[in-house]
From TrEMBL:
It is a single-pass membrane protein. PROSITE patterns: CYTOCHROME_P450. It holds the Pfam family p450. This is Cytochrome P450. CDD domains: CYP71-like (cd11072). One of its GO terms (molecular function) is oxidoreductase activity, acting on paired donors, with incorporation or reduction of molecular oxygen. Keywords: Heme, Iron, Membrane, Metal-binding, Monooxygenase, Oxidoreductase, Transmembrane, Transmembrane helix. It comes from Phaseolus angularis. Transmembrane segments: none annotated. It is found in: Membrane. InterPro entries: CYP450_71D (IPR052306), Cyt_P450 (IPR001128), Cyt_P450_CS (IPR017972), Cyt_P450_E_grp-I (IPR002401), Cyt_P450_sf (IPR036396).
Length: 410
């Protein structure tokens, strides 16, 4: 699925991996690039608000709507308005993540390749790979055609992530350190969807579940958001840094509910000893970020959702505070965390600014089930149904309400 490990997550250390990290940090996920997608986020979240508003007063499946909205944002950031196969593509991504997160007996005995066939997993993965590859090949070819027309003076669209990656196929650039093949680009795009789609939607979902269980936190968060944007009459990204309590809510959510509780496996480069345990070279090391975030040795009332613990606290996402590593740490820390966090924080601000929220009739706050279900991410076992009550209606006509529909027609 990762095109022989030429993606960002699984590429081995070396020149190619270093160049991929460089592309991520100086091209794909710079603050300037992430900010350039502001209009996309605003339009898609406006669509989400309109969708929710149309269901006001009745239970609404927020889990499903958030997943659709986040994928819409990522699709448009990655592909622009050129992708006509979004729904099929997202469906295949979700299926691939589900298959990849399942138990496979062949992993326990990698030398016995017949076990891979016996489980039926390999044929399923190959089918998914072929279908995804076909869609991505078409998207890349469409971008190349559009790029060629732009050079001829027949129009120019906003640069999306595929356009950025295609720059590294320019044979005429003598300063180019790396050349990306079509398969390399496909692998990177799949990483962006796998790492940034369901993880972001799941985090927003957990945040809403936690604050609906604690009216004190809900009231405080809504008061902050509505105070910051009261003169503007709408949520604007330029003022997001003023939402210190909302940012603390996101941090606390990621502490208790890191979307990928087991970080990507590492490999021990040399024999070492840790706390008396002998670790042989080449050992696979899996870090449990979920357990670290709930360790009472580092966190007071570790199982309590208490955003205030991050107010006036220097702990951040940069991986230097090892008691808090929702995005990993070291050289393999998630390169797209800036992009993911903006999507999470802005979406949460929209939900808290425009709506009051109630549980369905007969449910008490403390009755909301927080049982976890482990798949590609750790999500709530049950979808989150809440009753929205419009507090701040959208100004003007807003955008068309098309969340969950294919918005990428030629």
């Amino acid at each position: 699925m990762a095109y022989e490990s030429t993606d960002i997550m699984f590429s081995p250390y070396g020149k190619y991996w270093r160049q991929l990290r460089k592309i991520c940090t100086v091209e794909l996920f710079t603050h300037k690039r992430v900010n350039s997608f502001n209009p996309i986020r605003e339009e898609e979240l406006t669509n989400l608000v309109k969708m929710i508003d149309s269901h006001k007063g009745s239970p609404f499946n927020l889990t499903e709507a958030l997943l659709s909205s986040v994928y819409n944002i990522i699709s448009r950031a990655a592909f622009g308005m050129k992708c006509k196969d979004q729904e099929e593509f997202i469906s295949l991504i979700n299926e691939a993540m589900t298959v990849g997160s399942g138990f496979n007996i062949g992993d326990l005995f990698p030398s016995a390749k017949w076990l891979q066939l016996l489980s039926g997993l390999r044929p399923k993965i190959e089918r998914l790979h072929q279908q995804l590859d076909h869609i991505l090949e078409g998207i890349i070819n469409e971008h190349k055609e559009a790029k060629s027309k732009a050079r001829e003076g027949h129009g120019e669209a906003q640069e999306d992530l595929v356009d950025v990656l295609l720059k590294f196929q320019d044979d005429n650039d003598s300063n180019q350190d790396i050349y990306l093949t079509n398969n390399n680009i496909k692998a990177i795009i799949l990483d962006i969807f796998a790492a940034g789609g369901e993880t972001s939607a799941t985090t927003i979902n957990w945040a809403m579940a936690e604050i609906i269980r604690d009216p004190r936190v809900m009231k405080k968060a809504q008061a902050e958001v509505r105070e910051v944007f009261k003169m503007k009459g709408r949520v604007e990204e330029t003022s997001m840094n003023e939402l210190m309590y909302l940012k603390s809510i996101v941090k606390e959510t990621l502490r208790l509910h890191p979307p990928t509780p087991l970080l990507l496996p590492r490999k021990c480069g040399q024999t070492c000893e840790i706390n008396g345990y002998h670790i042989p070279v080449e050992s696979k090391v899996i870090v449990n970020a979920w357990a670290i975030g709930r360790d009472p040795n580092y966190w007071t009332e570790a199982d309590r959702f208490y955003p205030e613990r991050f107010i006036d606290n220097s702990i951040d996402y940069n991986g230097t505070n090892f008691e808090y590593i929702p995005f990993g740490a070291g050289r393999r820390i998630c390169p797209g965390s800036t992009f993911g966090l903006v999507n999470i924080e802005v979406a949460l601000a929209f939900l808290l600014y425009h709506f009051d929220w109630k549980l369905p009739k007969g449910m008490k706050n403390e009755d909301l089930d927080l049982t976890e279900q482990f798949e590609a991410t750790v999500r709530r076992k049950e979808d989150l149904y809440l009753i929205p009550v419009t507090f701040h209606p959208l100004l003007g006509n807003g955008a068309d309400c098309r969340v969950g529909k294919n918005q990428f027609q030629d």
